[in-house]
Amino acid sequence: MPPLTRWCVRSALLWFLLALSTGVLLAGGASADIPGTTWTLPYPTYLHLLTIGWLTNLVFGVAFWMFPRYTAEHPRGSDALGWLAYTGLNTGLLLRLIGEPIQMAGGRAGALLLLSAGLQLLGAWAFVLNTWPRVKGK
Amino acid sequence: MLLVRSALCWLAAGAAMGALLLGAKAVPMPAGVFRLFALHAEALLIGWMVQFAMGVAWWILPKYPRLPERGPGAPIWTAWALLNAGVLLAGIGRAAGAVEGVVLTGRVAEWLAAVAFAAAAWPRVKAFGR
Q1: Model ipTM value
Q2: Which of A51, A58, B68, B113 is the most core-located residue (most Cβ within 10 A)?
Q3: Which residues in chain B have Cβ-Cβ distances shorter than 8 Å to A137?
Q4: Contact B26, A114 (CB under 8 A)
Q5: Does residue A85 carry a pLDDT above 70?
Q6: Smallest Cα–Cα separation from A127: which of B8, B51, B54, B17?
Q7: Any chain B CB within 8 A of the CB of A132?
Q8: Where do runs of H (alpha helix) occur along chain A?
Q9: Is A39 on the interface with B (CB under 8 A)?
Q10: Smallest CA–CA separation between A118 and chain B, in Å?
Q11: Percent of all residues in chain A with a pLDDT value above 90, rounded to a whole number
């Protein structure tokens, strides 16, 4: 298993735990408040922890590992694009996790959210670019 | 291949819509941006994740010892066409506030795609080499 896949899968597992913990908190209604703050974790944040943090990270990692080889010299395509996909997705999600509750509580986190949006988009497109040529027959 | 490539296209498009929607929480954007939400959700949940899983399953499930090794092509092509038509109809229909029939037609198309895919994949769920 290549290092990038290990990072993706382990990050996916951590996001998975965090997402389902959040789900428990949200099910408790008011207990979705973040301790020590006036922030409340918004439902969209929970959904994205689950779908981006867990599912998409897992897909990225396994696809990078298991898809048909690109070439003998570069079996997994571009490592740089792979790492860009991982970094963009996870940093973007982390910024969303911080920024969205602040913004929803009336604070100023616009720059964080914009950066988060840009990084996640960059990550998704980097994955598409790197994976596209590896989707092929024998 | 077509299922996975189509899924990648939906990922690229759905992520772009998601970036716009998240950006709209930070800076003022035309109100119409928020109408993208339905298409964003449909594109990423059905177009990307569901379709990617279907494509990888079709690739990796045990093959038949005879040709065609993955079984007849018609059901899987039908599933692909119905699923993508369904995502377009249900997603754009909801985003554009189209009549309820459009969204329902899209959802029925997605359901029929699932039926076609399950029927095609079912016999391939077996021990390798049988």
Answers
A1: 0.88
A2: B113
A3: 1
A4: yes
A5: yes
A6: B8
A7: yes
A8: 3-27, 43-48, 57-66, 79-104, 110-131
A9: no
A10: 6
A11: 64
Tell me the sheet residues that pair with A31.
Answer: none
CA distances to A7, A43, B97 from A89, in Å: 12, 19, 31
pTM attached to this predicted model: 0.91
| A103 closest CB neighbour out of B18, B20, B26 | B26
Q: How much is the CA Rg of chain B, to the nearest whole Å?
A: 17
Residue A29 to residue A19: CA distance in whole angstroms = 16
The C-alpha angle with vertex A36 and arms to A33 and A39, in degrees rounded to 5, equals 40
A132 contacts in B (CB within 8 Å)? 5, 8
What distances in angstroms separate CA B93 from CA A28, A80, B88, B99, B106, one per listed residue? 34, 38, 8, 7, 8
φ/ψ (deg, to 5) at B70: -105, 10
